[in-house]
Amino acid sequence: MSISPAAIVHPHAKLGDNVSIGPFCIVEDGVEIGAGTVLESHVVIKRFTTLGENNHLHAGVVLGSDPEDKNFSGNRSYLRIGSRNIFREHSTASRGTPLDSTTIIGDDNYIMIGVHVAHNCHLGNKIVVCNNCSLAGYVEVGDGAFLSGGVVVHQFSKIGRLAMIGGNTRVNLDVPPFLLTSDFNVAARGLNLVGLKRAGISTEAIRQLKAAYRFLYRSGLSLDDALERMELECRTEEVQELVRFIRRSERGICRDSRSKRAPVAEADPAI
Questions:
Q1: I need a surface site. Which of 130, 144, 164, 248 has the fewest CB within 10 A?
Q2: Residues labelled catalytic
Q3: The whole model's pTM is what?
Q4: Domains of the chain
């Protein structure tokens, strides 16, 4: 274990083996830091925060701060972070707002410079959140999603697994899994083909997802009818996951970017 003499570490903080804490860091009471985790300079970890193993926190990271929520009254709440995450400079994550509630960040995520993860968010695993993104309260982000620079996500919005959000997009509706989206108000532009292939999704599963996308956005069917056709005719697990996500959506899902313009042919290389 290596702790800089210029750091302030509460004697009741729990530190695993081989933790490294750089100069001018502050680690408060009630904090747990897993083995092999590195804190560079000026990192602040507030009370009721737990980190797993082998995380890397760059300069100026603040974790476990009080939520930016006028309803917060000083309740005990938590921030739980998994293992092997990277938090780049000046990224932040808050604890939950209600009593004993939790903000959760999973494993193997890359949180870039200036990102804010607000109270009660739930992030899965292997997510990339690029520079200066802001996630409002109660946002959920599925495994393997990619949020490009400057994305802002409205509270209670959900982003599905392996979805990709283009830069400077405002996510004000739910984004189903596997989609490629952009525009000021988030809109679908096809499938995230690069992300799907990198994740090892099979050629047949991608073909079925393309068919499901056409039912959902290009067929002219009502949402209920499109979902029924997807369930009956596209029987891969990925399509069923897509259907389940849409059925659970409370905000409603993003529209196709071309649905507001002239109709297009179903054959589309962007899908």
A1: 248
A2: 119
A3: 0.94
A4: 2-138 (2.160.10.10)
